[in-house]
Amino acid sequence: MPFASSEPTGGRDSAPVAIKILIAGGFGVGKTTLVGSVSEVRPLRTEETLSEPSSAFDDLDGLESKSTTTVAMDFGRITISDDLVVYLFGTPGQKRFWFMWDELAFGALGAVVMADTRRLADSFPSIDYFERNGMPFVVAVNCFDDARRYPLLTTRSALNLTPDVPLLLCDARKRESSRDVLVALVEHAADRLSAPRVTSSR
Amino acid sequence: MSTSRNARRAGRRARDAGPVVRPYALTAGRTRPSGPAIDLVALVCALGSEPGSEFELEHEHRRLLQLCQRPVSVADLAATLDLPLGVIRILVADLRERGYVRVKAPSSIGLNDMRILKEVADALRKL
Fold this sequence. Notes:
The complex is a heterodimer. By secondary structure, chain A is α/β, with parallel strands linked by helices. Chain A is built from 5 helices and 7 strands; from the N terminus they run E-H-E-E-E-H-E-H-E-H-E-H.
């Protein structure tokens, strides 16, 4: 059963470098839309299931089922080259699924936290999370048609963002705008690599 | 209602009762994969050995094997097979344990390599 441990180097079978980017933010903020705007594949949903042990019920046909919560995560892909692929993962919006975030965040380059000016507080859990775990992240305010436009400075202070966190406006429906958000994140991650990080105590 | 309609309804309910009930039947109730942890973007690749009779492959194991003749990520497998990630991990771990696939963890090179980040940013700008 044991197989040779050496991996083929070069050529089509060598593993491309995978860059994972998380798309976070509250429920309905536009994560699926943003992923869809830039992904080369239609956003695929993967699911984690959590069974809730307290409620088992009998089906009419005599099948027992537990009530389940499926946590859907959108995922998209952008192939840069044979050797480089970007994966986008939409994190589950609800705070109660936080335990999954650690797993999603492991090895990720950084995150885009999306925000909706009508429900800014929905982004706080994501912002808190990435501030605490130290990952590079940007905040993108999705411009919904009926949401008021505020000056960025107002939004920045409403979100209580530290000055080092890039804040930008976007329209998740548009590829160019969504792409710009991703570029901003990658550049921010690169900047953090090249400059020593000053952590502010909060 | 005719009995065949009942049977079809039962079949539908069984499918609808998944994703937990049915896929975890595949894993015989296991919720933890064996072996090293499997990242979402780890690449799975079939090693080309034919399934032997000593290990009965479930339908989903075989489908998974078919899908990873060329390296494919765990997330892609979950989405294509429409199975929860947890189940995919267990199936992949089964196949890995028995030598049918190898799993290559993502390298963390990209996170700390300015050249790669620049390449990604440049490519994204052209999207």
